[in-house]
Design brief:
162 residues, alpha+beta, Hepatocyte Growth Factor, 2 domains, six-stranded antiparallel β-sheet
Length: 162
């Protein structure tokens, strides 16, 4: 849907400038009556606002595309010192790997363990052991039932692709 300027209530004596962005956000602004012999300043202002909003939408879309391109790759199922290597962690009742990646960006690594998201700049310490993948296939992520979310004491780790 392309943004447009429309009169939202043609029967009204006070028309509105309505600008709807592709993300569904609608901007409504009352238009001032046009001067009889001059330009409609309110309509020109509305057009300027619309152009500004479109430009910002394009900027945000580009920023989002750049963010999405910073992929993380699966490193494995770990037991031990990964949790101690964390920078911070967040408990999230709707956790998924994608949500954890968003929470942890721009950390170098992140891990999911049941309902906790671990953000790390250091992957392992001397007590960390790589486990079989099935060791982390016990619990499903509460935010995505199709994803494994570790097991108490086991964490699925992802690392940023450089």
């Amino acid at each position: 849907m392309k943004p447009s300027i429309t009169c939202t209530d043609p029967s009204s004596d006070a028309p509105n400038c309505s600008c709807t962005c592709t993300n569904g956000i609608t901007f409504d602004q009352p238009l001032l009556p046009a001067l009889e012999d001059g330009p409609n300043i309110a309509l020109e202002n509305c057009q300027t606002d619309k152009d500004t909003l479109l430009a910002r939408e394009q900027e945000v879309t580009a920023e989002l595309a750049a963010f999405k391109s910073k992929e993380y790759t699966y490193q494995g199922c770990y037991h031990g010192g990964v949790a101690s290597a964390r920078s911070f962690y967040v408990k999230d009742p709707s956790l998924s790997a994608a949500r954890c990646q968003t929470i942890c960006y721009p950390s170098l690594h992140f891990g999911v363990c049941v309902d906790a998201c671990y953000c790390m700049d250091k992957l392992v310490d001397s007590t960390t052991r790589l486990m079989a993948k099935k060791e982390c296939s016990v619990k499903k992520c509460p935010g995505n039932a199709n994803e494994d979310c570790g097991n108490p004491g086991r964490i699925i780790v992802y690392s940023k692709t450089l």
